[in-house]
Design brief:
Number of helices: 8
Number of domains: 2
Helix content: 55-70%
Length: 144
Amino acid sequence: MGIWKKLLGQDQDAVDYYEEGVALLGSGKYHEALTSLRLALRDTPDDLAVLQQMAIVYTRIGMSDEAMRTYRKVLANDEHAAGAHYGLAFLLLRDGKPDDAKEHLRTFLAEPPDGPEAARHIEHAKSTLDSLEAGGDTAKGAIP
């Protein structure tokens, strides 16, 4: 990958650390993804897309508190960031805070994202919210 070539002096082209981090995340190389995303954040410290990807990585490696802090940082800069509401909702469910999770699910569903994978997340959010509002089990709230 680009970061390693850059460190070894084998690649003189600019490295897109964000794209590299997303690719590493997609291939399950979470710690490497986090390194690349941190490098991307160094270049653009308030980039909300980078922060959201970092929160996803933190979630996947079990750093839930750091993931929640990162999602909250995104929301402090953009209260309509759908991905941050979605991710934070399921982390709150995992922490046994269904009322807080419901608010984030409602906000996510009020302005859902577009795109090829959005339908799956929208359906998951709807079914989880329906279950929570019916007083049901939060097991549906597992992070997909």
